[in-house]
Amino acid sequence: MDSLLTEIDHVAIAVRDLDAAIAWYADVFGALVVHREIVESDGVEEALVRVADSYVQLLTPTRDDSPVAKYLERKGEGLHHVAYRVANCAAALEAVKASGYQVIDQTPRPGSRSTTVAFIHPKASFGTLIELVQENE
Q: What is the pTM assigned to this prediction?
């Protein structure tokens, strides 16, 4: 069987102060934001810093009831999830479900950058929240 995962899309880091995190990456690494977006459905603002063909995604909540706000409250700043690129998000999600593993999204949904995404529950993946990302461009 060929791997459903094609690349690492991004590593997401939850932060309390997005502008401070952006400045840190610029000051320390000379890394600049290539995309910034508010994702209303998830209650977050993201800034993507390009690293080769992948990104570091800096995330901060835009409302107190968002999953990232709850994460920051429980665990503090740090690694939030790892996202893998897939050719077909629906097929990859179905493969996870067919294997009997717990998912957060029952069906793929719109993500930032006009992508299609779905999340796999950390209980299914050794304590790591995983996002499947299909690029639609």
A: 0.94
